[in-house]
Amino acid sequence: MPITDLLERNAKLYGSEVALVEINPDIQEKRKITWREYDLIEGSRMSSYRREITWQVFDEKANRVANLLLGRGVKKGDKVAILMMNCLEWLPIYFGILKTGALAVPMNFRYSAEEIKYCLDLAEVDVLFFGPEFIGRIEEIADAIDVNRLLFFVGSVGCPPYAESYDSLVSNCASVAPQIPIVDDDDAAIYFSSGTTGFPKAILHAHRALSHSAKVEQVHHRQTHDDVFLCIPPLYHTGAKMHWFGSLISGSKAVLLRGVNPRTIMETISEEGCTIVWLLVPWAQDILLAIENGDIKLEDYKLDQWRLMHIGAQPVPQSLIKRWKSYFPNHQYDTNYGLSESIGPGAVHLGLENTHKVGAIGVPGYGWKARIVDEKGADVDQGVVGELILKGPGVMKCYYRNEQATHDCLKGGWLYTGDMARQDEEGFIYLVDRKKDVVISGGENLYPVEIENFMSRMDAIKDVAVIGIADARLGEIAAAIIEVKEGHTLTEEEVEEFNKGMPRYKRPRKIIFAKVPRNATGKIEKPLLREMYNSVNLVDAQNRS
Questions:
Q1: Positive or negative, the Cα torsion across 21, 156, 144, 113?
Q2: CA distances (Å), 44 to each of 223, 270, 524, in order?
Q3: Which of 103, 399, 429, 541 stands the most exposed, by the fewest C-beta atoms within 10 Å?
Q4: CA dihedral 59, 213, 128, 170 (to 10 degrees)
């Protein structure tokens, strides 16, 4: 069943109920729109700007978007991109695109002007919706991208001359659903890889994959109509949207929060009655630090309804979850593993009942199969490290316009993830590292995630990243970039003493105190770190010679 059918079902069953809430602590403009918007209730601790939309209005807005596009010549199979920050307009535009039979193409809000142009061209995008935050970047490339391409500006004021105003056009479009036949095997969306090895690749998914991800989310997290999901990560990413698909399939309310301040997160959970919260590792760390520093007092908030905290997008230190459970002992917990190539989270998951296995990414998710194989594609023995491969309804169709990359990672229906993993005697899978991140030092394979997990137990460490840097004698050595918690001090000698708990060959040979950069989905930007510190290491070597 195409995922657009779920939206239309919700409009019929739950039309007058709230579907989405947007909370924006920093909003300046107050747009003229037809749905409910107001400052939060007087007396609330929150000073944020709040808007909400019902399921019926959500569906009507999506229909208006679809009819706008159809009226401008968009047809089934065309590509329509979204370059916007999280807001109430985002999902109606996404579903409006799908209702035309066109492909939705969400874009990373961190892209430079050059990357925006590259991705628009790669995906052969016909239409671009963009928000006010991107006027400057689009202006840089407007002359190059507006030829034979429609540009719609989504904002109440300040529409640039090279674009058309979405707000003024969409209100005049019909709110009835277009009768475009869509089947599960039709192309639905193009997502972009993280681009950690260069420019992003375009990932093509069918409607079947989107629908399956909704079912996966509901099955894994037992989502009901009474749940309220707090969505903080960017909707362009498969992780955020596919977790929200659990709200779609259950017809339940979700809250889009702009901002990751620990106090704002806790206030939103309390005020909106959130029951399910998906966090990235840095945000969970910040919340714990705020509690430990006394900046947040849990008794000030209504949190009894909060039943589940889950994390995905990157390896999760065991020490983090241990600390979390000490403050929230009644929380259910889940870790979700997936890739954009496997339509986001859930291909492997820990499971709500398996908190005792924290450290593992878990077992194959609903409808998924997983294997760990060697370089020839043969299954490795239990406990041996190999490459994790996946098979299921959510595997991508291909890398769009990239036959070689598709051939390299899709083999016999299996998706080769590039992640190194091992499996224990109970069938739980442990992520060891990215294949490309493995450090080979003096012939020994070092897995940075294992080292990071060990070092993250040190109280003064807020975040840590381990990379390989060039070494004349050993080929590579492991270097640890350490971000120290605010208010703490840490010396190289103290770190080296703590690391004696690891085998000697695993201990980082270089300690660097610096901020650990993470992207919008919480992943450590290791290519950037390797570029930074390998060049520094080269200069040092030249200076010594």
A1: negative
A2: 28, 10, 36
A3: 541
A4: 0
Q: How confident is the model at residue 42 (pLDDT cuts 50, 70, 90)?
A: very low
Q: Which of 455, 46, 19, 2 lies closest to 187 in space, CA to CA?
A: 2
Predicted TM-score (pTM) of the model is 0.82
* C-alpha to C-alpha distance for 96 and 290, rounded to whole angstroms: 40
Answer yes or no: are the C-beta atoms of 132 and 83 closer than 8 Å: no
Cβ contact 252:17 at 8 Å: no
Compute the average pLDDT of residues 238-248: 92
pLDDT by residue (tens digit) across 460-517?
Answer: 999 999 998 888 767 789 999 999 998 899 999 999 999 998 878 889 999 999 999 8
Q: Could you give the dihedral angle defined by the CA atoms of residues 192, 194, 197 and 202, in that order, rounded to the nearest 10 degrees?
A: -10
pLDDT of residue 30: 40
Per-residue pLDDT at 538: 44
Residue with tokens 């079947």: 208
Give the span between the Cα atoms of 348 and 186, in whole angstroms: 25
Q: Which residues pair with 423 in a beta bridge?
A: 429
Domain boundary assignment for the chain: 438-544
Burial call 81-91: b when 16+ CB within 10 Å, e when fewer? bbbbbbbbbbb
In sequence order, what DSSP letters do the residues of 367-385 get, joined into one string?
A: T-EEEEE-TTSPBPPTT--
Over the stretch 303-356, which tens digit does the pLDDT of each residue have?
999 999 998 766 677 888 889 999 999 999 998 888 899 998 889 999 999 988
**Six-digit token pair at 424?**
């224990």
Query: Do the beta carbons of residue 341 and residue 238 sit within 8 Å?
Result: no
CA distance 416 to 412: 10
Contact (CB, 8 A) for 94 and 61:
no
Strand pairing class (332-339; 308-312): parallel
Closest alpha carbon to 375 in 387, 385, 384: 387
The burial of 380, by beta-carbon neighbours within 10 Å (0-12 exposed, 13-18 middle, 19 or more buried), is given as: middle
Alpha-carbon gap, residue 52 to 62, rounded angstroms: 15
Q: E-assigned strands of 226-343?
A: 228-231, 253-257, 276-279, 308-312, 332-339
**CATH number for the domain running over 438-544:** 3.30.300.30
